[in-house]
Write a structure and sequence with these properties.
alpha/beta; 279 residues; 6 helices; globular; Rossmann fold; three-stranded parallel sheet
Length: 279
C-alpha cells in the first residue's frame, strides 16, 4: 500500500482552457477533453495515475448554476476514496462562485480540490493554461507526512493558490485574473512551490466526507448607489419567496439614512428576511 501511485481525478466542466481557435476565423469552439491532455504531455512525467470525468456538454462558466455545483460535488463524493486529489477545469467568469460553493458543500474535506482554467485556450502558443494545469496537479498531489498539503477547495491561477471562498476575479485581460484581497495566498509557485502553512486550513481527519446540497437561490443582491430610487429596493424586498438580501454599501458599510430607505429595510427584516450588509 505504501508504494501505491498517487491518483488524481481531473474534472472538465468547460471554459477557455478547453477551447480551440479556428485560425481562419479567430472564433473558438470546445475541444474534447482528450485533446486538452494531448496538449500537455508533460503531465505524464509526474508518474501519477490520472483519470478524467467531463461534463457531457462543456459549459460556458457564465451559464453555471447550482445544479452544476451539485453535480460536481457528487462526482467528488462518488470518487473520493479512489483519488488523492481533484483538479477541476472551469471557466474563469464564475470560477470563484463555484469554488466558494464547493467549499461549503464538501464538509469534512481532507483532500485538495483545486479549480483552475486559463485566459487563453490551451492550444494557443502563449497560453497560460499549461502552467496552471501542471501546477494545479502538483498541488493536488502534494503531501506532508502522508497527508494532503492543502486539504481544502482552492483556486490556482498564475503562480498563486488562493482559498476558494476568499477569491474573486479581478481581470479579464491579464493572466493574474484572480485575487484574494483579505486573505493571503496559500501557496506561490516559483522554482519551488512555497506553501503558506499557517494560512492553510487544517483537516480534522475525523468524519466522512459529507455533501451539503440543499442550496436555496432565493436571494438578491442590491448595490447601493447615490440616487437609488427607494421603490427599486422595495420591489426587490417584496419578491415572493425571497429569503435573503445582500446590500452592497459604501465605505465601511454606510448607506442612506433617510426614513424611507430605513423603513423599507426594517419592513424586510420584520418579514423574516435575512439582510446582510457588505462593502
Amino acid at each position: 500500500m505504501a508504494n501505491r501511485k498517487t491518483s488524481i481525478l481531473i474534472i472538465y466542466t468547460g471554459g477557455t482552457i478547453g477551447m480551440i481557435q479556428d485560425p481562419s476565423t479567430g472564433s473558438y469552439s470546445p475541444y474534447n477533453f482528450q485533446n486538452i491532455l494531448d496538449e500537455v504531455p508533460e503531465i505524464k512525467r509526474f508518474g501519477y495515475n490520472f483519470s478524467s470525468v467531463e461534463f457531457p456538454t462543456p459549459i460556458d462558466s457564465s451559464n453555471i448554476t447550482p445544479p452544476a455545483w451539485i453535480e460536481l460535488a457528487g462526482i467528488i463524493k462518488e470518487n473520493y476514496r479512489f483519488y488523492d486529489g481533484f483538479v477541476i477545469l472551469h471557466g474563469t467568469d464564475t470560477m470563484a462562485f463555484t469554488a466558494s460553493a464547493l467549499s461549503f458543500m464538501l464538509e469534512n474535506l481532507s483532500k485538495p480540490v483545486i479549480l483552475t482554467g486559463s485566459q487563453l485556450p490551451i492550444n494557443i502558443l502563449r497560453t497560460d493554461g499549461k502552467e496552471n494545469l501542471i501546477s494545479s496537479i502538483e498541488i493536488a498531489a502534494a503531501k506532508i507526512k502522508g497527508k494532503a498539503a492543502v486539504p481544502e477547495v482552492c483556486i490556482y491561477f498564475e503562480f498563486k493558490l488562493y482559498r476558494g471562498n476568499r477569491t474573486k476575479k479581478q481581470s479579464a485581460e491579464n493572466f493574474n485574473a484572480f485575487e484574494s484581497p483579505n486573505f493571503p495566498p496559500l501557496a506561490e509557485a516559483g522554482i519551488h512551490i512555497s506553501y503558506n502553512f499557517s494560512s492553510i486550513k487544517k483537516s480534522s481527519g475525523r468524519g466522512e466526507l459529507k455533501l451539503n446540497t440543499d442550496i436555496d437561490s432565493n436571494i438578491a443582491v442590491i448595490k447601493i448607489f447615490p440616487g437609488i430610487h427607494p421603490e427599486v429596493i422595495r420591489a426587490v424586498i417584496d419578491i415572493p419567496g425571497l429569503r435573503a438580501v445582500i446590500l452592497e454599501t459604501y465605505g465601511s458599510g454606510n448607506a442612506p439614512a433617510d426614513k424611507q430607505f430605513l423603513d423599507i429595510i426594517s419592513g424586510g427584516v420584520k418579514k423574516g428576511l435575512v439582510i446582510v450588509n457588505v462593502t
